[in-house]
Amino acid sequence: MKSEGTLKVAVAKYSVGAPDDFAAFAGKQARWLDEARQQGAQMAVLPEYLALELGAMFDEATRGDLHASLAALQAWHRPWLELFSRLARERHMHVVAGTFLLDLGRGRYRNRSYTFAPDGSHVWQDKLRLTGFEKSAGVIESGDELKVFETGPVRSAVSVCYDSEFPLPVRAQCEAGARLLVVPSCTDTQAGATRVRVGCLARALENRCFVAQSVTAGDAPWSPALDTNTGEAALIAPMDVGLPHDGMIVQTRGDQHWAVATLDFAALEASRAQAQVANDRDWASQYFPSVARAKVVRAVAA
Fold it and tell me: Where is the CN hydrolase domain (predicted)?
């Protein structure tokens, strides 16, 4: 697919708070998206586990228990969809509303990322790979389907946090035409933040695509999942001629809420003609018999 045109994207370094009720949460989302829109953003990306901020509304026993808080959260799924549908429509922008841990009816939760279009419609992508924390919870399950979305002038795909560290699913999304990889993330250690950032840089390099990573920030001691948060939001490009040498287009610093930049997809496509390397084109060259399986060899005397 040939991608043309530009898209101004804002990625959030989202300060986790403790809303008293859903109205307070909704007001915060409106203020944050207004800030992004005032900077000209046509797409805004919020972080993984965004919906868990709603846990602050619950009583102390419920919000301190992951299983209980996930069960209580389900009553707010419909209002969540209605809220972000309205916000996207009123601001005429694409909104990636982080993730919502959704019970599909069996007491098992999918970590689902919704993308809302300017007309209020939505699509979704489930997280495919579970972290150690998610596995230990015992009630979160992985998704089983990869998707690619039409987003303004370009096709985009969502890779939720840990998913960005795996090359093959993202490669499949890019082979289906994605030129923008959206990564809503939530990490509680510097090591975790580094892993996701390295994954984002690698996926941009391999696929010659832009990557938009959002993060959570601050502390939420009342939440077993959002307790500590670290990292910087960023917009990332392949490292090649005419593009940032370190891959970093822009990233947040300090208390900055948004990193915002205009992504030029026509220029991204044109960069192939002068590429120093072409990992995206050369991907298939990995598939030859001698690398199907490595063998152990021993040194021999001269």
Answer: 7-265
> What 3-state DSSP class applies to 135?
helix
Render the burial of 110-145: b for 16+ CB within 10 Å, e for the rest. Answer: bbbbbbbbbeeebbbbbbbbbbeebeebeebbebee
pTM: predicted TM-score of the whole model, two decimal places? 0.95
* Pairing relationship of beta strands 154-158 and 178-184 according to DSSP bridges: parallel
Structure-token pair, residue 50: 């965004």
Q: Domain-by-domain residue ranges, the chain? A: 6-291
CATH 3.60.110.10 fits 6-291, yes or no: yes
- In a 13 Å sphere around the CA of 106, the CA atoms on its Cβ side amount to 6
Q: Closest Cα partner for 161 from 187, 143, 141, 180? A: 187
* Tens digits of residue pLDDT in 39-88: 999 999 999 999 999 999 999 999 999 999 999 999 999 999 999 999 99
